[in-house]
């Protein structure tokens, strides 16, 4: 039964890889200049293996759909050799290893037009965009009025919420409603992205800097993927330090799955935003 599943899965990605390879004219590839004998029109498996730095047998196993321990760097080299588009590279990664390709050092300010417009046009509630390490890459004007820290250089939600003294004053029930949940989110993120140096540094810096966070981290085993739909209480200067209850909503822009679109709304019908 297992072999049948492998064969079906393999046929799908095999057909795609053969088709992608067949459309590449080997004569146009600078990587194959000087190769003897000189390549003709057809890009062969041997050519792709040469361009990706592996044996012909290793590449042949990929194209045959045989499940191997193919590394991300190898799959990225295959995508480059076959001149794959972003969507084709995504398909290759999902078919072979079941995960998305790593982000390519994209400029954080390079936001899709629609996502940026949606953020700027959100005038009723505070809203912001954060990346996988909770760096705030953009925020609307109301978010800056509620939480002035997002206008400071290199704002980071986790560093502010877990390390800044004002967070403990403004986020009521700080330990239970904030610290335990955010640390549980960091636990999920650090295990989901073990190769992300920025996330590792973020966790290390927080635990080294704060004794309460170290204690919670050591005594808790909870994991939380996101804070969507979570209610919490705030006391902000923007609201004259009156207590308010709000709910967070987290959306993932399809054009930038590495970002979170977060906005904050009144809880229980509160209309004082």
Summarize this, please?
With 273 residues, the chain is of the alpha+beta class. It has 12 helices and 5 strands.
Report the principal-axis shape. elongated
| Distance N to C terminus | 58 Å
Give the number of domains: 2
Strand tally is 5
Largest sheet: 5 strands, antiparallel
Beta-strand content: 5-15%
Structural class: alpha+beta
Helix content: 40-55%
CATH topology of the largest domain: Beta-Lactamase
Order of helices and strands: HHHHHHEEHHHHHHEEE
Q: How are the strands ordered across the major sheet?
A: 2-1-5-4-3
CATH class of the largest domain: Alpha Beta
Radius of gyration (CA) equals 24 Å
Uncertain ranges:
1-10
- Number of helical segments? 12
CATH architecture of the largest domain: 2-Layer Sandwich
Kindly report the average pLDDT value: 86
What's the layout of helices and strands?
Layout: H1 2-22, H2 45-52, H3 56-63, H4 72-81, H5 86-97, H6 113-121, E1 127-130, E2 136-139, H7 141-146, H8 157-163, H9 165-170, H10 174-192, H11 197-209, H12 211-219, E3 231-235, E4 243-251, E5 260-266
Antiparallel strand pairs: 1-2, 1-5, 3-4, 4-5
Protein described:
With 273 residues, the chain is an alpha+beta fold. It folds into two domains: 2-97, lambda repressor-like DNA-binding domains (434 Repressor (Amino-terminal Domain)); 113-266, 2-Layer Sandwich (Beta-Lactamase), CATH 3.30.450. Helices cover 47% and strands 11% of the residues. The chain is built from twelve helices and five strands. The chain has helices at residues 2-22, 45-52, 56-63, 72-81, 86-97, 113-121, 141-146, 157-163, 165-170, 174-192, 197-209, 211-219; strands spanning 127-130, 136-139, 231-235, 243-251, 260-266. A five-stranded antiparallel β-sheet has the order 2-1-5-4-3. It starts with a helix and ends in a 7-residue tail after the last strand.
